[in-house]
Amino acid sequence: MSRYAAYIASIALTMCFAFIAWLDADWWWVAVVFGVLALLGTWDMLQRRSTLRRNYPILAHFRYGLESIGPEMRQYFIESDTAEVPFSRQQRALVYQRSKAVNDTRPFGTQQDVYGADYEWINHSVVPTRIPSHDFRLIIGERAKQPYSASVFNISAMSFGSLSAAAITALNEGAKRGNFYHDTGEGSISPYHRAPGGDLVWELGSGYFGCRDLDGRFDPQRFADAAALPQVRMVEIKLSQGAKPGHGGVLPGAKVTAEIAMTRGVREGVDCNSPSRHSEFSTPIELLEFVERLRVLSGGKPVGFKLAIGHPWEWFGIAKAMRQTGMLPDFIVVDGAEGGTGAAPAEFMDHVGVPMHESLMLVHNTLVGLDLRDKVRIGAAGKIVSAFDIARTMAMGADWCNAARGFMFALGCIQSQSCHTDRCPTGIATQDPSRWRALDVPDKATRVFQFHQNTLKGLRDLLCAAGLEHPEQIDPEHVLRRVSQVEVRSLGALYRFLQPGELLSGIPEHAVFRKFWDLSRSDSFALK
């Protein structure tokens, strides 16, 4: 009977204080409190949806309350500073410090286990260099009519609708001040992307938001009109994203406000579908034809695509089509399975898609092996927040890096993991005006700008220490990883990197190429 003790006690105390309140009115509020608890316990006993509440009236609610604050309890009181779940306190603190332009130095030695497996570092030189500027840039779309000079660190895809109006505005204002780009996400170009005037990469997903008719078909004229905006510097076709590759999504009609409907070109109040696949192409060659078509419609702006690697033969089919037809994207953005700003089913978040490191190396190796690497730029996204993250990613084959959650931290995200609930406590991932209006746009834009600047300054200092002069000089031999307590290897020794043109003369001794290269097709995403 002990499990009913709280319920029985609430009834007894209600009766007791009701009698006391009859004698002394000052005690009425105590009787009300216990009366409410008694009513709650009675409801628990009568309802049939929860066995736990029927067996533990009143007490079960304490369990639910503790469970609801479990993530916060673990994050603030239990987890170590280096536990990445998904980002460690140390990682978040670094972003907060750099976004606020406060001292980010640390005392008393590293908290990393330097003798633990997977510990990584970059070797330094006895003759460090001096680099005057931290504004590292590269040209994307050298063969296009309107090439773009991009920063090596930019804001990854996050849509208006997923993020609030204030968050989008602050991100774009920060990008404008720092002269780096802001990827729109597949939700298209909103008024909040346009108002500050920062550079945009327009991400075109399977829903063709912003350039579609009401039936969801691609509309060439609407695309051309939007792509002509001076702010739109590049166009990115989204094949898949790291958080939920191959899944698609639905924005419920209740969330399709007038602003979102106008931005996406959909009906207000009607479910907004983002299909799991594109309707404008169904083969690798058709994908490249679509790239060429968008390049013409955009007036010669760089056009590429973003993908999270899944079946390797599908990527090989695209690569073969590039070599056979001569139709090349200006860039490819590789999104790792560790990406995660978009809410996704647990199985997709945890067990679908290839992590960024392996994906990046596969794309890089394939282009090198086909002798196309110098013609196609590669960007990479996936849990990048520090200068070392950028350096390591570029050593593995990327020309530049994008970050999403890093810039969310710069906006003030506290990793409450409530992005999908519309109750984001910091006003970032919500459409609730009472929440996002509390986000101070000028202040957060400054933090976005400062996070970008201070991270690139950190990258500059790393390069100087290594005796290098530009990020493009980082190669796999510069980054080392401990694979056991007694064994250390460079990335160049750990992984098989192809030589230029190696795929043109035969299949290399590489398991994935050996198994799938000959089975891939340029005319289909299926196996031969």
Kindly list the characteristics that best describe this protein.
single chain; 528 residues; alpha/beta; eight-stranded parallel beta sheet; three-stranded antiparallel beta sheet; 20 helices; 15 strands
Structural summary, described in words:
This is FMN-binding glutamate synthase family protein. Belongs to the glutamate synthase family. It holds the Pfam family Glu_synthase. InterPro entries: Aldolase_TIM (IPR013785), GltB (IPR024188), Glu_synthdom (IPR002932), YerD (IPR027283). Keywords: Membrane, Transmembrane, Transmembrane helix. The strands form four sheets. The chain has an eight-stranded parallel β-sheet. A three-stranded antiparallel β-sheet has the order 1-14-15. It has a two-stranded antiparallel ribbon with strand order 2-3. Helix 12 links the parallel strand 10 and strand 11. It is of the alpha/beta class and 528 residues long. Helix 12 runs parallel beside helix 14 and helix 15 packs across helix 18. The protein has 20 helices and 15 strands. The N and C termini lie far apart (68 Å). The mean pLDDT is 90.
